[in-house]
Amino acid sequence: MSYLLDANVFIQAKNLHYGLDFCPAFWEWLIDNHAAGKVVSIDKVGDEIAAGDDELSDWARDRGNGLFIKTDAPVAAKFGEVSAWITGQQYEPAAINTFLQVADFYLIAHALARGHIVVTHEVPANSLKRIKIPNVCIGLNVPFMTPYEMLRREKARFVLGRRQ
């Protein structure tokens, strides 16, 4: 089972805890674990990152080869299951329309099709105005966790080298 990363994992890492300039080990860990078949994301997340036109979009373009997988037929086959669950809830129509048009919808379909664990900073919420990834994961029995849970589970270590 591999980890499927939401856009906010990359964006918050860059903006907060794992800046590309001071914590390159996090970014190397992502690439290494992608190469090992443990970490992926999707092309729609890659598109969101590319739209930022910043150092993160440069990183994704230069080093993210293969990390952002495309939607294929087995994933597309799960669209109906995801949309049926969402429309069967009490969400406001605007929330449903928004969710069906953003990367989150594709992320859940990928997780269902491939058995991924969704990794996101989002937390479940009882809002009818915005659909949160964890709520959909719970409703569709898709495992999810925070990036910190993923890093601990994988025993990631970002250790400073010896100072000279």
Overview of this protein structure:
The protein has helices at 7-17, 24-35, 43-51, 55-63, 73-76, 79-87, 93-99, 103-114, 133-140, 147-153, and strands spanning 3-5, 39-42, 68-69, 117-119, 144-145. With 164 residues, it is an alpha/beta fold. Strands 3-2-1-4-5 form a five-stranded parallel sheet. The model has no long low-confidence stretch (mean pLDDT 95).
List the SSEs and their pairings.
Blueprint: E1 3-5, H1 7-17, H2 24-35, E2 39-42, H3 43-51, H4 55-63, E3 68-69, H5 73-76, H6 79-87, H7 93-99, H8 103-114, E4 117-119, H9 133-140, E5 144-145, H10 147-153
Parallel strand pairs: 1-2, 1-4, 2-3, 4-5
Number of beta-strand segments: 5
Principal-axis shape? globular
Structural class: alpha/beta
Distance between the termini: 40 Å
Rg, Å, rounded = 16 Å
- Given the structure, what is the number of helices? 10
Average pLDDT works out at: 95
Q: State which percent range the strand residues make up.
A: 5-15%
